[in-house]
Design brief:
With 345 residues, this protein is of the alpha/beta class. It has 14 helices and 13 strands. The chain folds into 2 domains: 103 residues, Rossmann fold (3-Layer(aba) Sandwich), CATH 3.40.50; 224 residues, Rossmann fold (3-Layer(aba) Sandwich). Helix 6 crosses helix 14. The radius of gyration is 23 Å and the shape is elongated.
Length: 345
């Protein structure tokens, strides 16, 4: 499919509404006002905004059924029967601009359905941020377009874990919460990248201030990337819990020393009630209990164990990123395999 949406209506007022909403999400639609134009572009358009004045043409079977159809009407409440006839997921009108823009954004913006993964550390300094970056880098190595989201304004920063603190691009504070919804394409273009991995983190020289909600950013990101990895803070409330609930997989990262594993058991108990699926990654710490011991305490298998390396620690301090960790790469690859994310062709 092309990336251009279709606006199909002969009503000037409905056309103006549709154009305004498309402009709000950065889309430049094709315009048609009759059956000939509707038939020509119906299948190839990324989405269709059809005016209620042309709904009868669609409902009579003049064009085949398709997804990503939005019905535009001056009075949405009275137009729902037409929505059923044309297979529209939403009916939008000028009376609720914010809802209309969001519906149009969901329809026209992006054609992907990213795999959403959340990463949580059992204790501070567990290595969750480092593993989140490893997942992103592993995805990039398979030809995917990954995004790593730093959801903790009080953390060290995903950019430091990637060795990309000087990379150009938007940080959380640059995403204006009052500026309307970000489009997936615009978000992808605005964010910095490192090693083929896009990332969203916090600018340390500016206060956190008001930023878009994590829910809105993730909702946009999954339409623009193949893999979205969210590095969550250990103390999860509100939107962080919601993100856990919609992620395909949650990775709990824990050091294998006794105190960390005890903390991991409590965190795992909390997570089990909020997540779809949970796996454990262990990080070797001195003479810890090891992979088998972590699995025994947490009563679940350990997907992988990351072993310490002076060379990797030195690379992280130099800003070279964590990719030199062989055990880290293997573990990240195992998680991607569990998700069914093979090499993109």
């Amino acid at each position: 499919m092309t990336s251009s949406p279709l606006v199909a209506t002969a009503d000037p007022a409905l056309r103006d509404h549709a154009l305004r909403w498309c402009a709000a999400v950065g889309a430049s639609p094709e315009l048609v006002d009759d059956l000939v134009g509707l038939r020509r572009s119906w299948r190839s358009a990324s989405a269709v905004l059809v005016g209620v004045d042309l709904a009868a043409l669609v409902s009579r079977g003049e064009v085949a059924r398709r997804d990503r159809v939005v019905l535009v009407a001056e009075d949405p409440d009275s137009a729902w029967r037409h929505a059923v006839d044309v297979g529209a997921a939403e009916v939008v009108g000028p009376g609720a601009e914010d809802l209309a823009v969001r519906a149009v954004a969901a329809a026209v913006d992006g054609r992907r359905e990213a795999c959403l993964v959340t990463v949580v550390g059992a204790v501070g300094g567990a290595g969750a941020s480092t593993f989140a970056t490893l997942l992103g880098l592993a995805g990039a190595g398979r030809g995917l377009e990954p995004l790593v989201v730093d959801a903790d304004p009080d953390g060290g920063g995903i950019d430091l874990a990637l060795g990309a603190e000087r990379a150009d691009g938007a940080r959380w504070q640059d995403l204006d919460p009052a500026g309307g919804p970000w489009g997936a394409a615009a978000l992808r273009q605005a964010l910095p990248t490192s090693g083929g991995t896009s990332f969203l983190t916090w600018a340390r020289d500016r206060p956190a201030g008001e930023v878009p909600s994590l829910r809105d950013v993730v909702s946009t990101a999954v339409r623009g990337f193949d893999l979205v990895v969210v590095d969550l803070p250990r103390h999860r409330v509100g939107p962080e819990t919601e993100t856990l609930g919609v992620s395909v997989l949650t990775v709990l990262v824990t050091p294998d020393d006794v105190r960390s594993v005890a903390a991991a058991r409590r965190v795992a108990g909390d997570l089990e009630h909020a997540v779809t699926d949970l796996v454990v990654v262990a990080v070797r710490r001195g003479p810890g209990v090891g992979r088998a011991g972590v699995g025994e305490v947490l009563r679940r298998p350990v997907t992988g164990i990351i072993r310490p390396s002076r060379r990797v620690r030195a690379a992280l301090e130099r800003g070279d990123g964590p990719w030199g960790s062989r055990s880290g790469r293997r573990t990240a690859a195992t998680v991607l395999d569990l998700l069914g994310l093979g090499t993109k062709r």
